[in-house]
Write a structure and sequence with these properties.
224 residues; Protein YceI
Amino acid sequence: MKKISILALSVALVAVSCKESKTDNVTATTEQAVAEHAGEIFTINTDSSTVNWTAYHKGGLNPRFGTTKTTGTFSVENGNITSGSLISDINTLTTDPTAVDPKLSEGKTAADLDTHLKSADFFDVAKYPSVKFDITKVEDLPAGTESKVEGANKKISGNLTIKDKTVNVTFPAKVEVTDGKINFVSKFTINRQDWGLAYGAEGDPKDWMISQEVDLELNIVADK
C-alpha cells in the first residue's frame, strides 16, 4: 500500500510539473547581423497591435499574464518582409487584474506585480526602458513544420534584446502582406535565464519558485 501511495504521488507530481504547451519553442543562438532594409516601409499600428506575455510558477501553476505596447516598422519588398524592428516599452507593461487574486497573494494586486516587474529585481526600467526585436532573417516555413500558430508560413529569426543581453531567436509565424497592410502572428516561449532575468542572487529560492519559461504572443498590425 505504501509503494502504491508513493507511486501515485510521483505521478501526481509529474502531472503538476508539466503545463500544456500552447506556444512554439524557439531556437536560440548568439547575436546575428541585422537584416538590411529593402523595399517599402510599413509602420506598426500600436493601437491595433498586441503583445501578450504569460509567466508561471513552477509546473505552470498560478500563471501571471498581461500586455505591453509596441512600436516599430517592417520593410517589404515583392510582397515579403525583408527586415523589421519591434520595440516594446516596458513602462507600458500591464498585468491583467484577473491574473492576481489578492486573497491568494498576501494582499498583493496586479498593480503591485507591475511595479515589481519594472523594478531592478527584473526589467529595471529606469535603466532599460524597452525590449527590442530586430529581424535578422525571414524564410519560408519548411513544409510539414508543426506550429501552434494556425496557418504559419514563415520562419522568423531576430535579435531579441532584454536589458543588456541580446540573443538571436527563431520561431514560426503567420505573415500576411496585403495592399497597404501587414498582419504578423506568432506564439513562442523563451527562457528568461537566457537574458539574465532572475529574481535575487543565483540559487535564490524565490527565483526557483518561478518557471524559467515565458510565453509571448505577438499580434502585430502594420500599415503603409
